[in-house]
Amino acid sequence: MKQLDRYLLSQFMVLFGFFALVLVSVYWMNRAVQLFDRLISDGQTAWVVLEFTALTLPNVIRAVLPVAAFAATVTAINRLSQDSEFVVMKALGVSPWRLSVATLSMGLIVALMMSALVHFLVPASRARLADRQAELSENVTARFLTEGSFQHPISGVTIYIREITELGELKDLFLSDRRSAARRTNYTAERALIVKSETGPKLVMFDGMAQTLRSADMALSITRFSSFTYDIGALISPADGGLRAVDEVPTPYLLSADPAIRTLTGTTDAQIRAALHERFAQPMLAPAAVLIGFSLLMLGSFSRFGLWRQIGVAVVALIVLNIIATSAGSAVSADPTRWPLHYVAPLAGILFAIAVTWLAGRPRRLKPPRRARIAEAGA
After folding, report:
1. How many domains does the chain have?
2. What is the mean pLDDT of residues 198-202?
């Protein structure tokens, strides 16, 4: 029996590796195209695009692992059924419970992979991605200061720069600030520089003029200056107070119940508790998915055309499982005290698989041939 388990597990894992590679590639490439369009349009290099797409990879893998495990399970069982290997196993008295050992083993292996991802790799990658996004946001020249075109970093602000030198000096700057309903101010300067400060980046303009138009009386005032400092911190990104998202903090730090973690993330104990339970519940989706696929295919009998009807039902069951998980996540987001809902989807999936496996293992009463039924009815 150990050889049977090893054989089935090897079949499952080979197909799991194939489906995981395909699904991760498709999902990742779709994400990479979106990042490429956004970052390249912001003036970033291909290396930055590659770095950002690599940092999204752990979360992509976490999302596709249960689906890859499910696809590997149904494909392997369908292939073994078509090759009559399952027919031979059942003829030798191997029950569905015994056959489920290898399936459960693969589900637990995938759950361990997901645990490493959700507890360590995904938070680390998200934290690094947030840091890099903050760094790029501070790089004003790369973000929206593009020479020769009018840029609108936020609503009510327009910037035009004729030329940006290799040293980062801005030549012939025009800046229009229309954010205030009471007045509108246009700044022009022969040259300008971006200067970093403790309160954020500043735009220092030299040899220019400020024209302010008051909306109340349409009075225009003109001020000439040799140097003028304009705060452009609000044009880059809204201030977040240096807060971290809970998703960016590794699990050991959340488990420490350190008050500094609550201060760092700006969350309550209930929100942290809900995030922890979500991380512990997510890996359980992998065993639930593979057991659902295995149990439903066990209901089928030998067919040269495969178990396509059972596979269709299994796919629908997996979709329902994901809908339950998504709905539970939304409910917990609205009220963190509902954190037990995170376990509803995996537990429901496992209990459903157990019930279907029990049904598949029950002895079936075979119908008599049609001629025998006709003769019995005539008698």
Report:
1. 2
2. 74
Written in H, E and C, the secondary structure of the chain is: CHHHHHHHHHHHHHHHHHHHHHHHHHHHHHHHHHHHHHHHHCCCCHHHHHHHHHHHHHHHHHHHHHHHHHHHHHHHHHHHHHCCHHHHHHHCCCCHHHHHHHHHHHHHHHHHHHHHHHHHHHHHHHHHHHHHHHHHHHCHHHHCCCECCEECCCCCEEEEEEEECCCCCEEEEEEEECCCCCEEEEEEEEEEEEECCCCCCEEEEEEEEEEEEECCCCCEEEEEEEEEEEECHHHHCCCCCCCCCHHHCCHHHHHCCCHHHHHHHCCCHHHHHHHHHHHHHHHHHHHHHHHHHHHHHHCCCCCCCCCHHHHHHHHHHHHHHHHHHHHHHHHHHHCHHHHHHHHHHHHHHHHHHHHHHHHHHCCCCCCCCHHHHHHHHHC
Looking at the fold, whether 250 and 320 belong to one and the same domain comes out as: yes
Q: Tens digits of per-residue pLDDT, 102-112?
A: 899 999 999 99
Q: Are residues 218 and 94 part of one domain?
A: no
Domain's final residue, options 180, 205, 236: 236
Is residue 372 domain-resident? Answer: no
Contact 332, 344 (CB under 8 A): no
- Answer yes or no: is 215 within a domain: yes
Same domain, 201 and 216: yes
- Section 36-57 average pLDDT: 74
In a domain, 58, yes or no: yes
Average pLDDT along the chain: 84
- Same domain? 114 vs 86: yes
